[in-house]
Amino acid sequence: MMLRTFALVALAVGLAACGRDQAAEVASTEPPLATLTVEPGAAPRERVWDGVVEAVDQATLSAQTGGRVTELPFDVNDYVKAGEVVVRFTDVEQQAAQRRAQAAFNAAEAAFREAEADYRRIAEMYERQLVSRAQFDQATARRDAARAQLDAARAALREAGEQVDYTVIRAPYSGILTERHVRVGETVRPGQPLVSGLSLARLRVHVDVPQSDIDALREHGKAAVLLPDGRRIEAERVTVFPYADPATHSFKVRLDLPEIETGLHPGMTVKAAFVLGESEQLRVPVSALVRRSEVTAVYVVDGARVSLRQVRLGHRVGEEVEVLAGLSPGERIAADPLAARLWLAGALTERDDG
């Protein structure tokens, strides 16, 4: 660790020394380089906290009927499309119950047709005053009872069909299978967990924010996730939970991310930047930076002097990055660091040859 620190310090000193030497000995004419003037500008003031990524859609599928597991087509970490079968049970009992329900429905339907026909005959005869009111009421009651039995048989048939459907468990959405709670050949009962899974399409981030910053966070309601490659993923929605943890006195905040490819996975830790106000910041284009190992620098142009200067960076916003130290307002930097390097090398070569 000490050797690594010494190497970084030596590299930074070397960069600064190189910049001083080169700047002191180039020609007096101003270099033909495209430059940018560093000026402060109003920008959001942000604070960063760690957050944890989780899936919006994650569930454990449980059995809704009893049976023996006959098929588990997918293993842990397999990708499953929506609607694909993830568990299949034996359905002997369910199929038998469905056939009984179908037979009962057929009998109830026949009984209703007979009761309906009797009712119509009695009603016609009653209109001609050939039967008594009591006989007409009896026919009406038999028809209504038969209709009720038919409705009950239809409901029982529908329930029996659902029990058959419950022997085949399908994925409610596309995602990754994360856990299998049963094995092939195992007998399960209603309510027993079968498999767990989650979808990577919709993600969100949970962050614990100190109570001292929660009012400013609520006022602005803007946040972004900072990816390791420098990208920012703006949160579509910022939700502040209305209560604090009594142990840590922090509030839970949830960031809903857009459905784009982020490279994030549930369980990962990320940096979340929250807007708390505005401040004056110096920003430079990312394309103007020179990176050597863990040292970042820019080419500073001061008249005929060109020097390589180390800078300390803050947050990246789009194609610009905040400069925390190393530059002052009004200074000019080379827009193309490669062109500046080539010009500087050529100027030094001419000096040495002269």
From TrEMBL:
Residues 205-274 form the CusB-like beta-barrel domain. One of its GO terms (molecular function) is efflux transmembrane transporter activity. Residues 283-336 form the CzcB-like C-terminal circularly permuted SH3-like domain. It comes from Rehaibacterium terrae. Keywords: Coiled coil, Signal. This is RND family efflux transporter MFP subunit. The lineage of its organism: Bacteria, Pseudomonadati, Pseudomonadota, Gammaproteobacteria, Lysobacterales. One of its GO terms (cellular component) is efflux pump complex. PROSITE patterns: PROKAR_LIPOPROTEIN.
